[in-house]
Write a structure and sequence with these properties.
By secondary structure, the protein is an alpha+beta fold. The protein folds into two domains: 4-176, PUA domain-like (Roll); 194-333, 3-Layer(aba) Sandwich (Trna Endonuclease, Chain: A, domain 1), CATH 3.40.1350.10. Helix content is 26%, strand content 30%. It starts with a strand and ends in a 10-residue tail after the last helix.
């Protein structure tokens, strides 16, 4: 048994569950004493390591944000049981350790130490979404978003509770706005073919960010926009695509629109909308196009009175446009 975990180092599953006193299997694990959580573990991995039918979970680490699908591979997910324990961190500040699988279990060349330590993770929010389960059927799932904290590289096990408490308290001082925690999801909307939507979203999510921008360029041309230009990949000030409105939207013809493309699984918040508005050229309209969802705060920011309005296109709306226009998705093209 080891005495500490170091960010970036590799560990075996046996070392993890023996050291942290959690279960030896499962993506979400907790150490419980007297019905209280002592600590938790989140085990995540790249979709590249699994067949979709074997592991339909769509976890993704984007920057410091980990988007994680709740427990339950088949059927509708609930927030009961082990999933509900995650939310308790907000009140009880217990440590949750994050690990990411760096090689497939089929890869015999890699030894037992194939779990990379991410650091302590902070529960941020949860919200419903849709996914295809291991039987290929559409279902409602719960997505959790975590912030990965890596400033403290070494976490002694005997001190993880104290360290976690201080990290979470400091984080809440810095991120004082909780208004981004309410996510506007479309899972309960009628007249949406969720299975087709999820097939489209899945194809978009496997694109690299630059591929997604180039795909969006072609889609904009197909739907009537003109002078479509993808900005340089670096130093774009948050603007990914510049376009002008075509004659199909004759009232706004020739209007200049600047677009930010977010090929994200995690939600888009107020900060991203406000930053885009600050990057716009004079008299330009702004839009955020994402494969995910927007927070309620982001929508309020986009439509706030007295400010230049920002158009928000979420993953459901984007997928519907692709379906309606019968626009092919060929990720090899870009």
């Amino acid at each position: 048994m080891i005495s500490e975990f170091v960010v970036g180092e590799l560990y075996s599953n046996e070392e993890i569950f023996n050291t942290l006193k959690v279960a030896n299997a499962g993506g979400i694990r907790f150490s419980i004493q007297d019905n209280f959580v002592v600590r938790g573990v989140i085990m995540t991995s790249s979709q590249d390591f699994h067949l979709s039918g074997e592991n339909p979970y769509q976890d993704r680490l984007e920057g410091e944000i980990l988007t994680y699908t709740a427990a339950g591979k088949v059927g509708e997910q609930t927030l009961g049981g082990i999933n509900n324990r995650i939310i308790d961190q907000k009140d009880y500040l217990f440590p949750i350790h994050g690990f990411a699988l760096i090689a497939s279990r089929r890869n015999k060349a890699v030894g037992p130490k194939r779990w990379q330590y991410l650091g302590l993770v902070e529960y941020l929010r949860h919200y419903p979404d849709t996914q295809l389960d291991s039987d290929g059927k559409i279902r409602q799932v719960w997505l959790f978003e975590f912030r990965i904290h890596q400033n403290i590289k070494t976490i002694p096990i005997l001190l993880d509770s104290n360290i976690s408490r201080e990290i979470l308290k400091d984080s809440r001082k810095y991120y004082i706005d909780d208004s981004d925690n309410e996510i506007i999801s479309r899972v309960n909307e009628e007249a949406i073919n969720f299975k087709e939507i999820e097939k489209i979203r899945a194809k978009l999510l496997v694109m690299e960010p630059r591929q997604f921008e180039l795909f969006l360029k072609d889609l904009l041309i197909r739907t009537g926009f003109t002078e479509v230009c993808v900005t340089k990949y670096t130093a774009d000030g948050g603007i990914d695509v510049n376009v002008k409105v075509g004659n199909r939207m004759w009232i706004f013809e020739h209007s200049f629109v600047q677009i930010q493309a977010k090929r994200w699984l995690h939600s888009v918040g107020r900060k991203e909308v406000a930053e885009l508005r600050g990057s716009l050229q004079p008299f330009a309209r702004g839009a955020v196009v994402t494969t995910s969802h927007f927070s309620k705060a982001a929508i309020q920011e986009a439509t706030e009175e007295g400010k230049n309005p920002i158009a928000l296109i979420d993953g459901f709306r984007l997928s519907k446009v692709i379906i309606e226009k019968q626009f092919p998705i060929d990720s090899n093209k870009f």
